[in-house]
Design brief:
Layout lengths: L21 H18 L20 E2 L8 E9 L13 E9 L9 E7 L3 H4 L5 E8 L16 E7 L1 E5 L16 H13 L12 E5 L2 E8 L4 E2 L24 E3 L10 E2 L7 E11 H20 L6 H11 L2 H31 L8 H20 L4 H21 E6 L6 E6 L1 H4 L2 H31 L5 H16 L5 H10 L7 H20 L4 H23 L14 H23 L1
Parallel strand pairs: 9-13
Antiparallel strand pairs: 1-10, 2-3, 2-5, 4-13, 5-6, 7-8, 8-12, 9-11, 14-15
Helix pairs in contact: 6-13, 7-8, 7-11, 10-11, 10-12, 12-14, 13-14
Amino acid sequence: MAPPAVAAGQGGQQPQQQGGGGFGKTITGIIRMAVFWYFASKFFSPKRAPTDPSGAPSPLISNLFQQGQPLDMWLYLSEHEKFNDFSSDRDLVWHETNLPYASWGPGSTRTLALKYDPSEALKHNGSLYAHVFFAQSGYSPDPTDPEYQPQAAFGRTHAVVKYLPKSRADKRRSLLGTSPDSSEDQVASKVAGDTQNDSEDDGPLEWISYLKPNVTINLVADFTKYSKNGIPPNIAPYLNVDPITGNYYPTVFFNEFWLLRDKLIPMNETVTELLLNLEVGPISMTKWQLFMQIDQSFQIHRSYGSMVDGEGDELKRVFLEGNPYLLGVTMAVSLLHSVFDFFAFKNDIQFWNKNKSMEGLSAKSVVVSFISQLIVFLYLLDNDTSWMILGSSGVGCIIEFWKIGKAMHIEIDRTGRIPMLRFRDRESYAQNKTKEYDDIAMKYLSYVLFLLVAGSSVYSLMYERHRSWYSWILSSLTSCVYMFGFIMMCPQLFINYKLKSVAHMPWRQMTYKFLNTIIDDLFAFVIKMPTLHRLSVFRDDIIFLIYLYQKWAYPVDKKRVNEFGFGGEDDATVASTAVDAAAKEEEKKTN
């Protein structure tokens, strides 16, 4: 029986293929696959063929089709999940002949750009399904055809429409009631006002239909002979076994791995015509399993709360749109950044753990650092951040509070009804010029910081929208921490200037932080980021350069106590004593 007719202009001829991208495209593909292979959680290997109670091995099943065997394809688009109208010319949108199965070469991949007119039902949250059928050349996929052979045809149905929950109404509003940008904020205030009395979880959840603009059909090149009772668990759900022969049909895989969420088309009354990009071609067993394992890994991370919706798409976008050479450099630099972060954290803990004197160190900067870390933690908590980021920020708060205990005496005051924490300066800090210089620096810097915080907060209150006054306070304080945090590093510069010494500084930790700052400078040039964040990277460079100048201008004073409570002269005395003892011992042996 001849294949069903196809409407003019919709198929029948092999579309012209685009030329390859050459060596650069090959390198890009290799790098993408190698990196994603690294991120894949694990792969399931086929199990050993089990035996039945009699001890005989279980029978093996194999693919019904051979590599390179020519196939014909029919693709139907229908609003019904069940399809059996093979004679419908209206639903048939694409027909291809002589597709070589599991063979890579000219003509193995076919593409088609299709203009599709959606129905009124589809515009109003209707469904649309792609029904694809394959058959050996010369055979029909229609079961009612007299020439139909069950072992010569197979197919699969796939939903082209995806339903996603509608975003909740924006709860943010102008806290002053009016805004200079009236056209935008009045609408936002109205939306927020309509739902102001409702909680985030009240009311039924509304769903919106999105159409997938790309439909990629891949035939998996799988010729493995599986044990009938030992099919791997990652293969079994996709294996279509013929009940008569016991062998399996080729696996049809609708590849949506590179289909990002922002590419989906929302369906509504304004949509009059859709452009669908159709593609059919082979895919290797390894690549298919790789895509499946990565998607499964993303789902597991989302279920654990370690990944929010959209992060998987952003990771894919880096590999999809990024330059492969720049991507490789970025990965290497990111690895170095993580290593330097670890060493900076390690030396910071060692410094404060072994520190016996606060002479020359700013205790108030330690307190302000804890307050800044606490503000960032509360801001992340208010914005529904993933628990992994919250946990990291929470651990940072605990460490900063521990450093306060090393810089000051923390006591519990039980004189009142409610026990309160009382902080008292250490003797090594209060009984020398360090406290005086620290108070002077913090006094004048607090004036500058107060003006900056007040100006930024007023601007945010007038021109930006917030969910509540609490959110406004948190966002204003967090913005100030990010933008003006470098001011908190200035008291230490002032103390160094007054003492004319930097021997008390934790230089090993600062060296690693400075290296990380250089890496941040590199990212500031190659990665898109807000201007304020880019400026914040270079402001740290200025502070560290001043530190380096002070280290050069103020040579190490051997009489000053270092960060471990020892002076350089003490080390010299110990060393000279050891040398004298060794000399006397050698003299005794000679005599």
